Amino acid sequence: MKFREAQAEIEQLVEKSRTGETNLAYVDEAGFAQAQPNRTAWTEKGEVHLITAERGKRLNVLGALISNGTLFTAKFWETTTAAAFGGFLGLLLECSGKPLTVILDNASIHKAKEIQPLLALLKGKGLTLYFLPPYSPELNRIEKLWHKMKYEWMAFKARSAALLEADVTEILDGFGSKYRMTFC
């Protein structure tokens, strides 16, 4: 029930963004590891599928897929914190140039007590947060971007930290030109 209500409400938000009344952003964070995710793999019969699994820090990306088709991101090698998230929202709103509605999940960093004063300030400047119902990542369009990056656009290989950052940066910078998505 809540899922269907959220779908209808998001469609209304999309329509408001189409008329230019507001911007709409789908926001989430994703982590990229030096060893590629390996859920399934195909190999010739009798052969073993191997990839070196270098352990290391994760490259975290905060991203906003904006209704005008652009992508706004911040990359860092540290853990994503509520403070980093709050700062990201402030920069996103500043770049928006008009009222902004952000669609996001209920991660603890999105609702942390420490950033409530900042969120109240940003609300006064035109930011609205729209929290999705639990267990409904398919309503957040940026989830599709993270999936495409990890499982389609990034070659299946182990990477050094520098190569991982270069590969992620290439995709983020090429989004909309070299790397494209369509929504049904």
Describe the protein's architecture and organization:
With 184 residues, the chain is an alpha/beta fold. It has a single domain (2-33, 55-173), classed as 2-Layer Sandwich (Nucleotidyltransferase, domain 5), CATH 3.30.420. It has six helices and five strands; from the N terminus they run αβββαβααβαα. The protein has helices spanning 2-18, 82-96, 108-111, 116-124, 142-153, 161-173; strands spanning 23-32, 59-66, 71-76, 100-104, 127-131. It has a five-stranded mixed β-sheet with strand order 3-2-1-4-5, sandwiched between helices. The longest helix is centred in the first third of the chain and has 17 residues, at 2-18. It starts with a helix and ends in an 11-residue tail after the last helix. The model has no long low-confidence stretch (mean pLDDT 91).
Q: From the helix content, strand content and strand pairing, which structural class follows?
A: alpha/beta
Query: Which stretches are low in confidence, meaning pLDDT under 50 for 5 or more residues running?
Result: none
- How much helicity do the residues have? 25-40%
Distance between the termini: 22 Å
Strand runs, count = 5
Per CATH, the architecture is 2-Layer Sandwich
Going across the biggest sheet, name each strand in turn: 3-2-1-4-5
CATH superfamily: Ribonuclease H-like superfamily/Ribonuclease H
Pfam family, one: DDE_3
InterPro entries: RNaseH-like_sf, RNaseH_sf, Tc1-like_DDE_dom, Transpos_IS630-like
Protein name: IS630 family transposase
